[in-house]
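#structure-requests
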Amino acid sequence: MRVADYLRLVVGSMRSHRLRTGLTALGIAVGIAAVVLLTSIGFGVQAFVLGEFSQFGTTILAVNPGRVTTHGAPLGLYGSARPLTLDDAMAIETIPGVEAIVPILSGNAEVEAGPRRRRARVLGVGPAVPQVFRFEARSGRFLPPDDLHQPRALAVLGSELRDELFPDGRPLGRRIRIGGERYRVIGTMEDKGETVGFDLDECVFIPTARALELFNRDGLMEIDILYGPEADAEALVAAVKRRLVARHGQEDFTITTQEQMIEVMGRVLRALTFAVAALGGISLVVGAVGILTIMTIAVRERTAEIGLLRALGARRGVVLALFLGEAAALAAAGGAAGLVVGVGGAQLLHAVFPALPVWTPWPVVVLAQTMAAAIGLLAGVLPARRAARLDPVEALRAE
């Protein structure tokens, strides 16, 4: 049979039963649209979260109190035999290859500026925040390199907190109260937005030693270490470990590289994306059942047509190919419609909700369309084989 005749028969069969064709293609379209839409959201969230982790660079080590003996997060401040201190941070800073360190302590306190007040996150940090976290001051300056143990009562405001406390836009040099203690504002930070769970624009930055006194803590939450791109991360981790073990007498801390954090988060997000796509794939199974049902009915309705084709000399392979081609065409048409709806729906969601990240990789588009065609072929195999095995004489009698 010529290719033109083959295509004409397949298309003619689909056009002669438009309602049936449309409903069958709709089942596949819904499945493909669900897979593409959910996958786009999953990949978008994955790219967004990994971008949030990597925006500070990948040459950072994090030292947390408490040793992890199983998979999971560090045990934290209260699970450590000995807390991390400012002296530990100063000792780490002298290790060759370390460019800067940021001792960190976080808490919440009432921040007052005249009659205005609000509850805000207070971050006790060191002066190297702009260098380590690529986070610059918009006006004024960041915390100066004072004595870590006896720093001055200075504060730097996040951009949103600045606007709320000083709507006139002139906070520099003015006094605020944090947890009842007086501080002088020496700078405001650039817009940064929400990063890894909290909004830096709503934070106030004070020296770490002041934060330890404010929250009555004797240990740090974390020490972040910046090292040069040419440095050997594994060798630096070993050096930091040796230095802290010498000071603590045991390994009661956890060291994590930024690359490790990104890798672990990437694995988790990929697993979630796969799970979400699998949920959408349930619709594809429903679509496959629909194709199987419709093609089975089509074989019964067209028994006489099959008998005529066989009587005219069409071989079993031709009949098999006709029904497989029809099933694949139904699935491909539904898949194409599903792709349009899925990609368009993802972009529409992003337009309506700009905070929702979406990203549709081209390999996903190609895979979705391939899946649609494959589902059509697989669902059409049994009906097509039944049609090809019909006896010509018995098929003609069915008229």
